[in-house]
Predict the structure.
Amino acid sequence: MLKLRNRLSFRQARDAVAIAFVLGLFFSLFQITVDLIGEREDADQTVHQVLKTLEAPAIQAAFHVDHNLAANVVSSLFEYRPIYSATLVDDFGDSLAHLQRPVTGGWLSTLADAILNEQDSFILPLVNERTDKPLGELRVRVDGALIIDDFFRRSVLIIIFGFLRALILAGILVSVFYVTLTKPLAALTRRIVETDPTDDNAAPFTVGKNHEDDELGQLASSVNHFATLTKEHLNQRKFAERALKESEERFRDVAESAGDWIWEMDENLRFTFLSQRYFELSTLKPEEILGKTRWEMAGANPLKDETWEKHKATLEARQPFRDFEFAVQGNGGEDRAFKVSGKPVFGPDGAFRGYRGTAVDFTEALALKNQLDQATKLATLGEIATGIAHEISQPLNIIRMKADLCLLLLEKGTSSVDELKAELTSVSGQIERAGAIMNHILEFGRNETDTPEAVFVSAAIERAVGLITEQLKDRNIALTLDLAEPCRPVSGVPVKLEQVVLNLLVNARDAITKNGKQAGGADPGGEITVQVEDLRESDEVRLVVSDTGGGIPETVLDHIFDPFFTTKEVGEGTGLGLSISFGIVETMGGTIKAANVGDGAQFTVEFPIIQEEPGVF
């Protein structure tokens, strides 16, 4: 329960009475001052009236020098209490009668002197009316303290009664304010405290009929409105919390059951969360990775040509990233390939809070891709098998002819050892040539690892050209090589780079052949141009393959790198050559573009160079 001095009614009454008392005191003092001035004027008039009353006897006493009469006059003056000294003198200044009593001392005397300005002496000249001759003077002195004593007694009573009136008014106001304000307001407050804001059946707040239209009624109405809004807000919050909890459970279920997993990092790029799927795939335990960065994970190594430095630079620049690939050791001891994507998270104040993203295990997809790449290479070999057979048949025919010649010379017995030695040396050279062709085919068709190394683009071009040259000659297609020297090496897998070049040459060959058939020519022919340029300004090596095969339809130009997309007839292609070439170039950090230039298509491939050259192919 509130103390009396803390109640609003008491404070209002106190303040009102205090203001009224101060104002009343001020006006009372002002009125007292005005009355005091009037009191002083009244006292002066009274003294003058008393002197006028005794003027005639005083003149007679002075004229006849009658001491007894003079004594009676002076004695009569003392009937006016404030007079404390009276003297009657003749015209020579001699005293005819004098009477005096003690004057009042103390603070009243000092105050009287200050207020009356020490004007306590009065003189009445005595003059003969017939001759206007002065006869003497009647002198009196007045005690001002006695004049203001009664006045101040009355003033004190007025102030005391005013104070008592203020106290009585305060009591009345406290009671009135309590009944009309504090009591209903306290009741409303108790109702608010005791009411459960979530109770939909709670009665509305009221303050009585007498207050329905005043400020308390408006307050109760506002509280009811606020209570309604609070209930709605609480209900919405309950619904939101329930929905959030369900969403979190659904999110967690999806995260735990999905093939992908979710991860989060703090502002220091250290893991704070990974879903369970990750720990099912790797050998790491939560305590071995939480609180660490991605590059601190045991056994983690980037794939492609990516490095931790590049990945760190992306994260420190607070940039989103996609499909960063790295490998870790799996539960079965095998290497697992992971692909990670993420985006930075910023708070409402714009401060960096960390990263959030997803990751997927694409080990099987990577193996399937490698198998598909291998199958595509073998399919390409199948497409150029005729040319390869022709390439091998030449040294075999020479070997057969040289062998027959040696047998003939031996049968005739006419050859010398040097002649036979020369023929057999030629046979050995042709066997070495055929072996080199077979080794090249075996190397191209072998399923190699994806470990990148430094490789010269021009060398890969020359090896790819060696597999298709005869087919181009058979189809009357001219091949022009513009291999700038020296070109700096790029980073990649030699066979895969050779596969890219061979795919581009095969596509150019097929485009020229198809364009010739559509033109109706028996032996249409065409031209393929291969150019290599070292771009010193951008530190790139550019490979350009152009043909005169009529170009690519503009409607399909944006889709030629899509998997299984082809413009060839059914059975003439897999639709994977350019798609796989695009993936190989992208893995090497390069770009490949297609455009129609002149009478055909032009493919432009650009690779970033490397500075070091260990194990150059």
Remarks:
- The longest strand covers residues 335-346.
- The radius of gyration is 62 Å.
